[in-house]
Amino acid sequence: MERRLAAVLAADMAGYSRLMEADEQGTLARLRTHRIELMDPCIAKHHGRIIKSTGDGLLAEFPSVVDAVACSHEIQTRMKRRNADVACEARIEFRIGINLGDIIFQDDDIFGDGVNIAARIEPLAEVGGVCVTSAVRDQVADRLELGFDDLGEKQLKNISRPVRVYRVEIDGDADAGAGAGADQPKREVKAATKPTVAVLPFANMSGDPEQEFFVDGLTEDILTELARHHELFVISRNSSFVYKGQSVNIREVAQKLGAQYLVEGSVRKAGDRVRVTVQLIDTATDAHIWAERYDRRLDDIFELQDEVTSAIVATLPGRVEAAQRDRIARKAPSNMAAYELVLAAKVLHHRSTREDNAKAEQLAARAIALDPDYAHAHAWRGCVIGQAWVYSWGEDRDALWDECVREVEIALSLDDNDADVHRILAAIKVGSNDLAQARHHQERALALNPNYDLVVVQQGELFTWLGQPLEGIEWIRKAMRLNPHHPERFWSHLGKAHFAAKQYAEAIEAFMHVSVKDQFQHAFIAAAYGWLGDATAAEAHLMKMKALDPAFTWETLAETLHYARPEDTEHLREGLAKAGLS
Question: Residues 6 or more apart from 244 whose CB is under 8 A from it?
Fold first, then answer.
């Protein structure tokens, strides 16, 4: 038995029973994700040790009370960010209590009044808040730039003496002012204004009341899935369903809901078939930006609902983004807000030229200056810098790589629930040949937004690198079905997957959909013709490859490969040798 002075942190999940009753499996999965990705690493980073875990909470010990309070503040601040786009009733939130006292250590457990007091003051904290005893507050008040509210003396259960309790101030501005001098004015932060979308209840045109559950379910599923896209602000169901069964004036509804875009649709059942129509309307002009019709057999109504929902939510965000691009094309960059700057940066990034990449990086950096807490801006600046690293568009590739990783890690700390952040982080891990971590972030992105075509296609790309090209082909084809307006580069991913699967004719056919091919794509085509024994066609693509990059060598290409299996790398090298590359 050992006795010493230590800081004890007690954390408990608020509303655990209610959330478990509503969705047991989902709640456990989300709680486990928060533990793995945030709480456990944060405690370790601050030199703490988890003593015990319960279903909905934990007890941790810290040698330093400063570390304990700093850890609790970081956990609660980051949890607020993780919950920013989660419905209030579905949020996982914690209360935390911290005490400094004499602790008994025995058999990997801790005992004593010091532990009991931490556990007793934890329920006094607000949801998402932290309460500490006066012993803690006195130790850290002058050592951490945090505010403390005196809650007075509290009589705690089974504790004979009253204990003075303080609330730690935790707000969204805690990080924004960090490091600023007392005489320096705070930098004005202009949060990104995202396009707002409202989904009106779809109309049941069948005259069959029994179809109402399908129609409402389809609308609710579309709302839920659209909300996964962090670059859209989606009006809640409670607001939009007010208009169920009503004939509406588009502009009036848009004004009341504050929506730039409206989604409306209808469902018509005839025999064993169902027709779903959907349209996207720009409320400022009443223009129909996009419309689609889905005709399906009514074999399994729930499968049909999932299929139509996936098709709609995979296409619609891209149509909104295209409409936004048309608007910002008429604006000078100096007049753009953070969201618009990121959108303009994306357009330039996808052109994949050195000049456009440099402009994209400048726009993303300006977006961050306008809104330092805009996770998407940090993620996309990392992506743009990553492209410069891939193509060696800079004198110091190591510095580019470090900056790329730094930006995406900032994005992750700001928003762990953004699928794009995890998608880009997965791509970075592929770039460093850390395929295990790439798979972790890729699967996280897929869980966060399973109908996001860029995430789905990257799943296929990752399977190709992992030596499972047939699975890769399936995922890439799925991404193409999800978004018929997909970027041309999807064909390049498909071509590489077919090549790895030794389906050379299919690989060549896929690459031919790319209107302007780079030297690396010509290399894959040449290798495919090499394996097919077509020396003339192989030589033609080698010549195009050399014209684009006269210094091209096998080593140049090898640097861009991330195959887990050496035989896949050798397969490409041998194909190029057959094509005539020395």
Answer: 201, 216
Residue 417, phi then psi, degrees to nearest 5:
-105, 15
Q: Which tokens belong to 563?
A: 């195959």
> Of the candidates 262, 279, 350, which has an alpha carbon nearest to the alpha carbon of residue 315?
279
Q: What share of the chain is helix, strand, coil (3-state, %, to 5)?
A: 55, 15, 30
Q: What are phi and psi of 197, to 5 degrees?
A: -125, 135
11 SS3 class: strand
Token pair 């399994």: residue: 300
Q: How far apart are CA 265 and CA 276, in angstroms?
A: 7
Please tell me the predicted confidence (pLDDT) of residue 157.
79
Cα–chain-centroid distance for residue 440?
Answer: 13
d(C-alpha 95, C-alpha 129), whole Å: 6
**pLDDT beneath 50: ranges in the chain:** 172-192
The model's pTM: 0.57
Distances (CA, A) of 159 to 102, 112, 119: 15, 11, 11
Phi-psi region of 55 (alpha: psi -120 to 50; beta: other; left: phi over 0): alpha
Contact 448, 432 (CB under 8 A): no
Which residue type does 269 have? K
| Tens digit of each residue's pLDDT (9 = 90 or more) over 543-572 | 999 999 999 999 989 989 999 999 999 999
Residue in 370, 324, 330 with CA at minimum distance from that of residue 346: 324
Strand pairing class (261-270; 203-204): parallel
Contact 259, 235 (CB under 8 A): yes
**Within 10 Å of residue 241's Cβ, how many Cβ atoms?**
16
At which residue do the structure tokens 């003396």 appear?
Answer: 153
The pLDDT value given to residue 499: 98
pLDDT of residue 193: 57
Distances (CA, A) of 200 to 129, 254, 411: 36, 10, 32
pLDDT in tens, 501-535: 999 999 999 999 999 999 999 999 999 999 999 99
Q: What angle do CA 560, 561, 567 make, to 5 degrees?
A: 155
